[in-house]
Design goal:
The structure is a single chain. The protein has 20 helices and 15 strands. The chain is of the alpha/beta class. Strand 2, helix 1 and strand 3 form a beta-alpha-beta unit. About 5% of the residues have low confidence.
């Protein structure tokens, strides 16, 4: 089996074995110059000799191998955007495409084949994506990576053929006209933003900036100069649409985003979860209880402004649920409505119904699944993988069936800017790869995904029953029935046992193992804490106090002893202040319980 992610659409293997040593020289033929292809080849095979030539075809030939492609194969490639063809014969390799992006993806697949597969059979590959725009998501509100890591993650997206990246900068954006909104320590400098955009372009990734314009504006509306624009004083992130200054502020923020993304087509305007819409007396005076009309009127002005800038606006769909069809018919249909549904089950029918409704009024539809979402766990340390995989599967199937051209895999760091961090970016890479595969090839083999990911990302091949291998720290880890009997949902539990075997991305493997250990210690702590109510009921009974000390002491102490271990793991990936925020979110309340109840009461009575 070829270890590839995404799994290609069509693979025909032959009995002959490909000789990897033939990848020593490349003839690159293109009808026009594009430095990204040469750089992709040089990055994949250091020191390779490249001979460039101009021609009507677009291909990369390694070892002198050139393949005559059948008319049937050419027709398949022409029917799908970003498609490519690979031929591996004993004498060399040949990658062909009708477009430069397809050639880039073909070279990426060839790199995976040769770098991550020990023995390679000669083969033919015909490949193309099911979904045209396959998007990842950077949520920079909380738990954002160190900048140098973030750049490497942009490059990583291209490995599983992501071609779009939505970025919610929030206060990390290098505002100029609104400099007071910038994070004092972690806002990008202009040259850092340019590096992000240049790295994305180099990897055929289109950046879509998301600038909140209606809700989720906590980082703006907490500022004293903008507080008066809140819908109500207690709704920290929601803008009153009936104040003229509100539209002026949102448009000014859009202008700054657009100016620093001159080559990007889209701007996402947010416009979701404006829970307090229509609550203030000004709004009621203008619209009464007609929240739908109020929402449409404000959003139409935002849409018009973005279009005047030569950009294409996107909004989330959820607030349109307040609108009847008469209001939806008034929505400026130059907008793209992005449906976000994150449930694990039962979403295909709502996706179809919403798509039909918006298309009825000539409104184009995009979609959003989630590789990390709340899932009822504010303090999750990694994505709740069972729910995320089911959600991704449902969206991939629905998007292909309904021909939705753009699906983003949202990856939330918290429910809102002042919320509890869900986990750090590195813990979400596994479902990101899974989503990348499913958006490329909805019919890929799910039962081999875990095995392929471990091989490609961590360098972990099939395992004996003893999962620890030669690492003494894992010598007693037991992986039942070897790897092929593990399911795709087993990744996080499995990494706690086999992280020591990783030869690639070892630090991320160790991080996953650390947060899984922390999960167990957290459960033990809360289990121990759950007994403390008995102090209130039976505080004069010695036997109860002895029992409480016995059941709480070790578990609580183990939980707190792990704090420096967790800190060290986090500080590898997060800026220091974000590591501190994460630790506080996990330890502040337990420390209060320990200090106020256990130490002050139970310990004092010994």
């Amino acid at each position: 089996m070829l270890h590839l992610i995404p799994q290609p659409q069509i693979v025909r293997e032959y009995e002959k074995t490909f000789c990897k040593e033939n990848i020593c020289a490349c003839r690159l033929c293109m009808p026009y110059e594009d430095d990204r292809i040469q750089q992709a080849i040089e990055k994949a095979w250091h020191g390779i000799t490249i001979q460039k030539t101009e021609g009507s075809d677009m291909y990369a030939s390694f070892g002198g191998h050139v393949k005559s492609i059948s008319d049937k194969t050419r027709q398949i490639l022409l029917e799908h955007g970003d498609s490519y063809y690979i031929s591996l014969e004993q004498e060399g390799a040949y990658v062909f495409s009708f477009c430069v992006a397809g050639l880039f993806y073909g070279i990426g697949t060839l790199r995976q084949i040769l770098n991550y597969n020990d023995t390679v059979n000669c083969c033919e590959i015909i490949d193309y994506p099911d979904i045209k725009m396959r998007s990842a998501y950077f949520d920079l509100r909380q738990g954002f990576p160190k900048f140098e890591n973030l750049i490497s993650y942009v490059e990583l997206l291209a490995e599983f053929k992501t071609n779009t990246l939505m970025i919610e900068y929030e206060d990390k954006f290098p505002f100029e006209q609104h400099a007071s909104l910038k994070h004092p320590n972690d806002a990008f400098a202009d040259e850092q933003l340019r590096l992000v955009l240049d790295t994305a372009r180099q990897n055929f990734i289109e950046v879509v900036p998301l600038q909140q314009t209606f809700g989720h504006l906590e980082y703006v509306l907490k500022q004293e100069e903008y507080m008066h624009l809140r819908e109500t004083p207690d709704d920290l992130g929601e803008l009153c649409p009936c104040r003229p200054e509100s539209l002026a502020l949102s448009c000014a923020l859009i202008d700054e985003i657009a100016a620093k993304h001159p080559d990007n087509r889209y701007i996402h305007l947010g416009c979701d979860e404006v829970w307090s819409l229509g609550s203030c007396e000004t709004c009621k005076g203008h619209y009464g209880e007609n929240k739908g009309q109020m929402f449409i009127d404000f959003v139409n002005k935002l849409i018009s402004h973005v279009c005047d800038l030569g950009k294409q606006p996107i909004i989330w769909h959820d607030m349109l649920g307040h609108c009847g069809e008469a209001e939806i018919a008034r929505l400026d249909n130059r907008v793209f409505v992005m449906i976000w549904l994150y449930e694990a089950a039962g979403i295909q029918q709502p996706i179809a119904a919403l798509t039909e409704l918006f298309r009825k009024y000539d409104i184009a539809v995009f979609g959003a699944c989630a590789v990390r979402s709340n899932d009822g766990h504010d303090t999750q340390n990694h994505p709740k993988i069972e729910a995320r995989i089911k959600n991704i599967d449902a969206w991939a199937a629905a998007a292909k069936k309904l021909e939705i051209p753009f699906v983003t895999a949202t990856n939330w760091t918290a429910g809102f800017a002042m919320g509890t961090p869900y986990g750090i970016y590195e813990t979400s890479i596994y479902p990101m790869y899974y989503c990348g595969e499913k958006l490329w090839n909805q019919g890929s083999e799910t039962d081999t995904f875990l095995k392929r990911f471990l091989k490609l990302f961590h360098g972990i091949d099939d395992m004996e029953a003893n999962g620890g291998g030669d690492n003494p720290a894992y010598a007693h880890s037991y992986v039942p029935n070897a790897l092929e009997h593990c399911s795709r949902e087993d990744y996080y539990a499995l990494m706690q046992q086999i992280a020591g075997r990783a030869t690639r991305h070892k630090e991320i493997a160790a991080l996953i193992s650390t947060v899984k250990k922390f999960d167990a210690l957290t459960r033990d702590f809360h289990c121990a804490s759950s007994y403390l109510y008995r102090y209130q009921l039976f505080q004069n009974q010695t036997v109860e106090m002895v029992s409480l000390r016995k059941r709480t002491k070790t578990k609580m102490e183990n939980f707190f002893a792990f704090r420096p271990v967790l800190r060290a793991a986090l500080e590898q990936f997060l800026p220091q202040e974000m590591a501190e925020l994460y630790l506080a979110s996990r330890y502040f309340v337990p420390e209060m319980i320990y200090r106020e109840i256990y130490k002050n009461i139970l310990n004092d009575e010994q």
